[in-house]
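User: I've been going back and forth on whether these two constructs are worth ordering. Before I decide, could you fold them both?

Assistant: Sure. I'll take them in the order you sent them. The first construct and its structure tokens:
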Amino acid sequence: MTREPSAGRRKQPALAAFLCAIAVACVSLSTAALGEQPDDILSRASVLRDPDIPSLGNPQGDLTIVEFIDYQCPYCKKIVPELAQLAKEDGNIRLVLKDWPIFGDVSVDAAKLVLASKYQNKYAEANAALMSATAKLTEANIHDLLAAAGVDVAAATADLQTHQKSIEALLARNTAQAEAFEFEGTPGFIVGTFRVPGVVEMKVFKQIVADARARAKKRKS
């Protein structure tokens, strides 16, 4: 789990609902009773189904996995193929990637351009291009990587200017949520209503998915 040492970001208080700890294959998690008020930044709708973030995997999936990411986070990059394989094998996972750019200005620029690429329906391609990059990101190679992935960078830059306020508001929401959940860095996950504060082995992650589904089923009954 990675966080920029110089970020200097003060954590907000944890959600009051994060009171009960459970053990899943030796990994301690907290149960999250997400709020129900639609205008609450920490509501179930805002955390799991923010309309400004395109979903990956199965958009109609019965379970949402939220991952807080930074395009310069090595652990985020490492888990990409494992998460993709899990989503493919499962077939019913809705994956939501929330940009939390904590590695400085380049990370912020990368996040904004990827989010702007959704206006030309290239969000998935833009995300994959930067997550698979092995070189240190710079303004120049971000543009090159996106262009190689089929993104019209000039159009994305124009869309970023047009939608700057909404994109910056989205990043602010992501940051507020990540800090309220007391994530120390990226990646951090919300699996259904379970908080997973970092990378775990995939067999453990699969158990968390199963437990999250069981909890959702129990909640509906």
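The second construct, handled the same way:
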Amino acid sequence: MINVAVIGAGRIGRVHVGNLVRNRLACLKAICDTQEQAGKRLAREFGTEFSALPDEIIQNKEIDAVYICTPAHTHVDLMEAALAKDKYVFCEKPIDEDFEKAKRFVYANSARAAKIMIGFHRRFDQTHLHLRETIHSRRLGQVEQILINSRDPTMDSYDVLTFTGGIFRDMTLHDIDQALVLLGPATLTGVFARTACLVDPAFAQRGDFDNAVATFWTETGVTCTILNSRRSAFGFEQNIEVFCSNGSASLNTPTEMTFTVRDQKGTHCPAPMGHFLERYHAAYETECQAFLEAIEQGKEFPISALDGLNALRLAEAADRSARLGQPVAIET
């Protein structure tokens, strides 16, 4: 049994707590949040201990692994503290808000960084996995273009997005990671991004955006275009098309039911699932299992700190391009 604590009792922390409680390999020892009311409420709900002090959790010798589900700018600091106490770390994306800080951290000690897994849950979704396997088999030939469309459903409050590091480090980052695993060894060398605030002026007030388009390219001319919006009136939307020399493969937004009705008023089909937490419920469970199994069996984590850094590198470049209003080269 692996003793685990979750630091951060927000929306994503709750998801991980639920999966840990249901997993036979884990024992949830504690929940930690500096916001005591939310943290205590979650701890009571799942019958575990509560602490308002992350350092208290990290110093606890009974705890083998920690989940870091806190604001993006705290990630590297908490990981450093946990690794210093020889704990395994699951860190929600992004690896940090600050790319330079994250780079120094990852490259400072590769053996230490090997004890970290980054939370890119889409890698554990069966539909995404099938898409990757199809592309990597090369039966469709060489990849020439990738189009990714991700739009979140309308939210009651955008407060949850305050500490994410912005749309590119939060939302686009998942799509960037998918592009990297689809392209394999190909290196993205440049990006041109455009942004807008069309949903809520609160984003502009925070120096952020709610709509973004980013086109990345490789030295050989392969392109990947990512479209993001914080408001989809009809539910969570996620589509990927990979266009190759001998054909194409697509991943489309799933619905709870797959049927279509045609009548005199037109064609009607079910709306997409309302939220990404519904869409990727099974993927989060599989991600949890992969983290715990790697610890139990002494295996390498399937998503490394370096994976997190590589995705953040591209997100930072896209953000810089949007703010400059011009294409930028991506640091190698």
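Notes on the second construct follow. Residues 65 and 88 are 4 Å apart (CA to CA). The chain has a mean pLDDT of 92.
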